[in-house]
Write a structure and sequence with these properties.
about 35% helix; six-stranded parallel β-sheet; alpha/beta; single chain
């Protein structure tokens, strides 16, 4: 692995270190509902605090439109971060203004601060490189070194991810190193049988990773909303289920490519079909090729894989040595349609090998369904970044740290 690490920064005692974390956690009524990304940032922050650095943490949360918005404040994150670190975290109510300047100036060795949501400043995500560079320079002025540890954003060319790394001595944090070690195993040295489980809503989001992984995997399991485009490519009617008609030809091509490579693509044989989208919907289980033959007719909506498919997927996963899973099998947020996702998650906890939950909705699902992080080999903090890495794309936030 060619990557600058914290050790390359030398003695950090008394040095102000700017740390880009990914603390983009879900909030409901101002309360954090999943603190997984905050917990993932703790090892790097503890290492810097123990080295005597003055730590200034920056992150984004949600998608405010380049201006302050109290719904996306990082104040609740500062409180939770302090609880996890076992020490106070000073919160600055702006990003590079007077509040941030005062907070940074007041830090002592081994102390830590969190600045307000980076996306309250339009320079963070601007498409204008000069505007990003200006904001990056303001952030860099706070510090003598930069540590990038927000794996979930390394595929973005944003001021706090890319430009600031070129203005300060920079290195990757422990989380990014851990994420890359796992992804390297998945792409270069996976133990066989190697199974990839893909779900989520849109097949268009996953086609590139399917194409990249087909030559490397043993089996590909398809669930989630994307499965209906696969069923349609086989000539089946899918009712009112999610369908990307413009992707049917591409899916047909990948089915043929898999057959040519000897890779088994396992599609659902039964589907949970509902009368509507909602927890109070009527639903039935039917064969995957008979979705429109239920009492709901063409209006039937597929919202989960069925029990037969769940058992088959669990069997394949359990016999694997390497598993990568990205995307829920159904609408797990609604109890009647969570069984498929729960079956896949449960199977991943049993394998004798490497089980990777690929971030995003998959990570949220396993926690919402009552699983704990330590039941899996690795839960990624970056769904989009993980997929782009597996696709073989160049990730600007890694390249600026010396990644090759």
């Amino acid at each position: 692995m060619s990557l600058r690490t914290i050790d390359s920064l030398g003695d950090l005692g008394g040095v102000t270190v700017l740390v880009r974390c990914d603390l983009n956690v879900p909030l409901k009524d101002g309360q954090i509902t999943d603190d997984g990304r905050i917990r993932a940032s703790v090892p790097t922050l503890n290492a810097l605090v123990n080295a005597g650095a003055r730590v200034v943490v920056v992150s984004h949360l949600g998608r405010p439109d380049g201006a302050p918005d109290s719904r996306y404040s990082l104040a609740p994150v500062a409180q939770r971060l302090g609880e996890l670190l076992g020490k106070g975290v000073v919160f600055a109510s702006d990003t590079v203004g007077s509040a941030a300047q005062e907070v940074v100036a007041s830090l002592g060795d081994g102390e830590i601060a969190l600045l307000e949501n980076l996306r309250f400043n339009p320079g963070e995500t601007s498409k204008d490189a000069a505007e990003r560079e200006h904001f990056a320079a303001q952030l860099a002025a706070f510090a003598g070194a930069f540590v990038s540890d927000g794996f979930g954003v390394v595929h973005r060319k944003q001021a706090s991810v890319y430009e600031v790394a070129g203005l300060l001595p920079s290195a990757a944090g422990l989380l990014i190193q851990a994420e890359l070690e796992v992804l390297e195993r998945l792409t270069r040295t996976p133990d066989a049988p190697y199974t990839v489980v893909l779900g989520g809503s849109k097949v268009s989001d996953k086609l590139a990773v399917i194409g990249a992984l087909l030559p490397k995997v043993t089996t590909l399991l398809i669930g989630g909303g994307m499965l209906f485009t696969f069923l349609a490519a086989q000539g089946h009617k899918v009712g009112a289920s999610l369908l990307e008609v413009d992707q049917i030809d591409n899916v047909t091509g990948y089915l043929a490519k898999a057959k040519e490579l000897g890779v088994e693509i396992v599609l659902p044989t039964d589907i949970v079909v509902a009368s509507k989208f909602g927890a109070d919907a009527e639903f039935v289980t039917t064969a995957a090729d008979a979705i429109e033959e239920t009492r709901f007719g063409p209006g039937g909506l597929g919202l989960d894989i069925g029990p037969e498919t769940s058992a088959r997927f669990a069997e394949v996963i359990g016999a694997s040595k390497t598993v990568f899973w990205n995307g829920p099998m159904g609408v797990f947020e609604l109890a009647p349609f969570a069984a498929g996702t729960k079956a896949v998650a449960s199977a991943l906890t049993t394998i004798d090998g490497l089980a990777v939950v690929g971030g995003g909705d998959s990570a949220a699902a396993v926690r919402a369904l009552g699983f704990t992080d330590d039941q899996f080999g690795h839960i990624s903090t970056g769904g989009g970044a993980s997929l782009e890495f597996l696709e073989g794309k160049r990730l600007p936030g890694l390249e600026v740290l010396g990644w090759q």
